Amino acid sequence: MTRFSFAARVAQIAALFLFQALIITTCAVAQTGGGAPAPPPQATPLPLSGRSGQAGGVVATESPVPGTTTSVNTVNPTVSVQGNYVGSTNSTKQIPFSGKLSLADAIRRGIQYNLGTVEVANALAQSRGQARSARSSLMPNFSADVNDLEETVNLRTFGFNFHFPGGVSFPALVGPFNVLDLRARVSQTVADFTSLNNYRSAKDVARAGQLSTQDARDLVVLGVAGQYLQVIAAAARLESASAQLETAKALDDRTVKQLHFGTAAQLDVNRSHVEVLLDQQRLTTLQDDLAKQKITLARMTGLPPRPDYEVSDDVPYTPAPVLSVDEAIRQALGQRSDLKAAEAQVNAAEHSLGAARAERYPTATASADYGEIGMPSGLRPTYTISLTLNVPIWNGGRTGGDIRQAEAALAQRRAELEDTRSQIEGEVRSAYLDLQSAASQVDVAQQNIAVMQETLRQTRQRFEAGVSENVEVVQSQESVAGANLDYINSVFAHNLAKVSLARALGESADKLEQFLSIQPRP
User: Of 324, 297, 320, 319, whose CA–CA distance to 309 is shortest?
Assistant: First the structure.
């Protein structure tokens, strides 16, 4: 009986150590990353186009239209603001508003709070996050883990079904056993050209996003400054219409008095009354236009969308700075952020193509771990050091497909780069043409105002002397009003052309004071 018990005890102890070794080996292999190798790296595909998908834009145009007088043909300047650039977040929470808006303050608020720049800034933050994610595959990875395993096992399922003399055999069920594994791990990519090129491509995309942010700021400067000029022009038209209405009322009063003295006919009185009514209607329309222009400017700069504020700056006519077209084009090609962004997008596409081609190269990864494993009462230190070399042989044609996608994206972005260069040169030349035509228009409008005012003076003298009817005076007043509107429109067109040239050259916020004569309103 003692002999049998001793043999059975030996069998149990052997089973115990055998199972412990089995469990420890299994845990160590599982925890050190044993099993199937990691999938090979793959190139990160880029969108076909490198141009940012901004929802909206700003375009300043000047198209020729017949003038308000018979002697002057004018250009019709407009600033078209679309999409996100029309809106903004609230700027008064961070920047107090006194009720008077200067051009510099409007631009500062627009750059910080216009929805166009906010959107591009968020896209930049996203692309920078993607670059950090791409870099993570090249950086060391550290981790630590604790694995506490408690298990019972049926040895017969592992093939341990042995019988010894004397009726002694391995027990069928062994356990419970408790195995504890405390381990720290580190892994490092040694050679992975696909991940390296993915990271370089992501960095170039982030750089392109940063440059696109600067370009969006230039667009906001164009939009806000152009809209500010529109408010100034609308206010000048309203002021001119108010003066015209006062003149019409004075003529109407004089005509009524002449009717009482018998020196004017009732037809003259009716004509002067109609002129007053027309001027009042014109004034109402211009008041409505000014209010809407101010609401639009407020929406672009983060102010409450109300017209109850004042613009505190005036921008009179001044000649454009002396700069040749060729020099302006050279500056623009060296300064425009959208061109630099397009170049960065080409670099990103080149690195993406390199990442796709590098899928055919071997990759190497080093890893190591150190820890203690065993029963809680008897832990033993263990470690593993490994170097894995992965040689791709055939992946079903995936690499060829990735290369074709990358080549198409690279070709598209190179084409967009060439188009951007052509677009910039076209914008510079168009701005110069607008400058020349607007400057000529200002000169003609000034001369026309002088002629029309002299004509009005003479017709008033003829009417007061009873030589003519007041129809000539009414027509002369209309001609003077039209000439004033032509001049206001010409100054607006010239200033807008200078703002467009500043945008075409790049870094427009720094050039506005150089291009525009900004004066505080009295």
Answer: 297
